[in-house]
Amino acid sequence: xxxxxxxxxxxxxxxxxxxxxxxxxxxxxxxxxxxxxxxxxxxxxxxxxxxxxxxxxxxxxxxxxxxxxxxxxxxxxxxxxxxxxxxxxxxxxxxxxxxxxxxxxxxxxxxxxxxxxxxxxxxxxxx
Length: 127
Prior knowledge:
Layout (H helix, E strand, L loop, with lengths): L1 H9 L12 H17 L24 E4 L2 E2 L2 E2 L5 E4 L2 H17 L6 H15 L3
Antiparallel strand pairs: 1-4, 2-3
Helix pairs in contact: 2-3
């Protein structure tokens, strides 16, 4: 469908397969979604689950729960923390992570974005 892309470019539209949002913007959006989800919870038992789609681990270990930034199903290197397994502590950790992201600049995420690109190509390149 090269003809379609050519016509779109003639109209000033650049076809792309995904949004060009920065990693920082993606993480802020994810943090907001995590906080919205946590706002619906009443007890820490609701933190338990079977998948790692949230920033908190699906199970606690010895009264602690791992919380880590995630975007695009990948964790952010160096962002994992362990907090007490309480709804308040998990929510506070996510809120603080959001503050860290908000205080950062897009350029500071360049190394992490590069690491993610390398891991994407490393998984799928066969020689």
